[in-house]
Amino acid sequence: MDGRLLFVFAILFFVSIVLTTPVNEAPPLDCPANEKYYKCSLEVCYKTCNHLKTPPPCPSISSDCFMPSCECKQDYLRNSNGVCVPYEEC
């Protein structure tokens, strides 16, 4: 009886490990240079060269998730042609 109980616990342990292990998700979008894939982004947080002096407010938590997208990396802003450039080039 003890052997069967140990076997059942071993199986349950194995199943719980498999179910809780995160899967490495490959981003479905190939982002251009100087851009990073975000699974959930907020449209209000998009930064462009127009926001150089007055960046838009970007809430840290929001239930209003926009679609997955590629956004400019840190220290880059989207120019009028839609390309992410260093903020010095705006």
TrEMBL record:
Residues 31-90 form the TIL domain. It comes from the Eukaryota. SUPFAM superfamilies: Serine protease inhibitors. The keyword Signal applies. Gene3D superfamilies: Laminin. Pfam families: TIL. Residues 1-20 form the signal peptide. InterPro entries: Ser_inhib-like_sf, TIL_dom. Keywords: Signal. The keyword Transferase does not apply. This is TIL domain-containing protein. It comes from Euphydryas editha.
